[in-house]
Amino acid sequence: MMRTAFAHLLSLAGHPAILTPSAAALAAVLRGASPETTRTVLLAAGAVAATVMVYSLVQVRQGKWADADASVPEERSQLNLFLLPALAIASAWAFWSGQPTALSAGLGVAAAIVAAAMLTSRWLKLSLHVGFAVLASSLFWPEMFLVGIGLGISSLIAWSRLYLARHDLADILAGALAGALGGLVFQLLLMAP
Length: 193
Hints:
globular
């Protein structure tokens, strides 16, 4: 009973809509971003997350989804079809409005992870919880201690998703790979002139 409650807590705290904006804002602060930039990062990432959460809750209230976790394949497909353009539009807005490269790149990479989930959905249910947790860990590069803490948290989130039977091991590994590749692309985009 206690283990199940802990797994639920980890799954909730590790939800991409909570973890990703929080990690992005913390990474901005730790990199010495101005308060205005940090606020913009938090507001942009938070706005996308809030939009997706409202969409999910509306689906549940209307009886179209069993819960906001969108674990059923049809629910997951609908969520991804909503999430992908939301992230892509936010990334385009950040780029064209002259926001920091990290913001537009991060939103674009997040959209790519969702696209990967959609492209692989025939074979597996890529864990977006794990993918976004690993991506969030990469935001702290090159501070290996913080990256390590992020990956430890990612491992706990992966365990919770397995324990709650939301995913199997292949889904978790695919999510981790997508997040790691996304993190690599994110860092390469930050280094580009």
